[in-house]
Amino acid sequence: MNQVKSIETEMYNIATEFITKRYPTGWGGVAVIHTDDGKFLTSVSIETANSSVDLCIEVGAMCEAHKFNSCVSHCLCVVRDDENSPFKVLSPCGVCQERLRFWGTDVKVGVTTPDNCLKFVTLENLQPYHWTNAYPFETLEHYSKD
């Protein structure tokens, strides 16, 4: 349990330090993914002139995990409104939840809480009624870890 907590705390520290350096003023956001082989992968939101083609903050780190053929164990997204605002944890959107399920339902994700505390839950707990429950797990090849 202590190891898990230290992974989560380390992810939060990586995120907040990265935001402060990458976005010294104004809005800032970063995602941190931890993999089962011990990597911490970070990504930021891509900025485009047309916001309809933007990608979620987590996507770059997910692609890195795929590139290294690493299994994602944790995902965290942290933002702040400006350099004077507190950091906030954002729960993954529905699309990112679908992307993260590639690595299974036991992936832990940081979630938004009313008191802004650092909390992680598994995708299984975040989505207890996910559509894949209608099918045997082994028939969902693209959701396997192998």
UniProtKB/TrEMBL annotation:
<keyword id="KW-0378">Hydrolase</keyword>
<protein>
    <submittedName>
        <fullName>Cytidine deaminase</fullName>
        <ecNumber>3.5.4.5</ecNumber>
    </submittedName>
</protein>
<dbReference type="InterPro" id="IPR016193">
    <property type="entry name" value="Cytidine_deaminase-like"/>
</dbReference>
<dbReference type="GO" id="GO:0004126">
    <property type="term" value="F:cytidine deaminase activity"/>
</dbReference>
